[in-house]
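Sanity check

After download, print the first record. It should look like this:
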Amino acid sequence: MFPNLFLVACFAVCVSASPMQRRQQEARVVTTCTKPNTAALTFDDGPWVYAYDVSKALVAANATGTFFFSRFLYACIYDADEVKRVQYVYGKGHQVASHTWSHKDLTTLTWDQIHDEMFKVEQALTKIIGVVPAFMRPPYGNYNSLVLQASFTRGQVVATWDFDSGDSVGATPAQSEVSYDQLVAQHPSQVIALNHETIETTVHQVLPYAIQKLQAAGYSLVTLAECTGLPAYQSVGAPGVPDVSYIYFPVS
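Expected structure tokens:
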């Protein structure tokens, strides 16, 4: 669908884009939903091959989710297949958000480096689907005052979670399902659930289980924007058309 001009965006010279503004105010940090009886199923580390199946499982249950995208570890977000995944998820009504460019611990970076990590993903999503995300999830959930200041400057909300399925730290599908059982038994008013779309068993075993359990417990499965009442995007427009005038970025 797109020429290789998108793909070369991952390999050319980096151009810094950090704004020179005073670093005073800090971004809002969202750790849970605000609307009662809502649960936001969120998925980190994509786009990857299981994005389609995550979306299909949600749509079949009349639910929506939130996808935190980065350049990704296995393929560049500008790769033609990755572009299609981002477009597919967005087209199905799910929320697309930033997980930074290269999944570095932002608390170890300088002001300019933090902005660079954020800017590259914003530009990618603008080019691919025409949106500037309003939510950013820092890798590992790690942030400090500098990260919050940079996020505020970029107009972002920093989003973490209040429930972890454990899939990224070695939990088996059975263990993740038990965690969801315990969550439902506690029945908090709202939930932001951390999952990873890159883990096959999460997508094909745990996710259907979680959807059924949460909906049976009376939760509406919605996006982070819907469950917090905050805008999903800073701007929404037409996708870019790849051409040689684009500013391209390296993998690292």
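If your output differs, re-run the checksum step. Summary of this record's structure: Helices lie at 51-60, 80-91, 111-129, 145-153, 173-186, 200-216, 224-228.
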